[in-house]
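Predict structure. Input: CoA pyrophosphatase, 213 residues.
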Amino acid sequence: MTAAGQGDRLAGLSAALRDGTAGPLGQFGRAPADARQAAVLILLTDETDPAVLFTERAEGLRSHAGQISFPGGGAEPGETPAGTALREAQEEVGLEAGLVTVLGQLPAAWVPVSGYEVTPVVATWPEALPLAPVDRREVADVLQLRVSQLSAPESRVTAVLPSGYSGPGFQVADWFIWGMTAHLLDVTLRVAGWERSWDQGRQIPVPGRFLRD
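Output follows.
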């Protein structure tokens, strides 16, 4: 895509990142002052129909095993959120930081279940080059799903749990995205102007495969 094409395609997203119009993402309130810091990378290809990068977490992990997530993890001392997100993406899927252009950050979100305040870093790269897990004890697979797939009304659901939880969900082929990743994806589609009308009353229980603690 040309620079002008990128400007048209990402205008809404870039404006939201610049102006902070995405609003607070903390559905669980404000993080405590001593919260551990983390970052995730929301990586979009610079194409007419951008691809979004996800990982499938390995089954042997102590938390969120088998779930679909954005690359990311805990910050090291002195790191910026962008530095954390890019380092984690390189460690998890071999993404070269030199291929990536950081657009900005969405507001940080407090995630009590993990004890982290998570900053979503939004970035682009030219195209969906092949990536693979660096360490399969941490990452089982790499997914690159198109915005057209994720925004399709038939892919959008309200994910529910027996505990009473409900939130955004995405069902694409055999993959089910829910939790914080789905919340961040939902916000990204909305502020970028990519969201399409969908049936929010369509409730789908989170499949057991993607529900392991």
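The chain has five helices and twelve strands.
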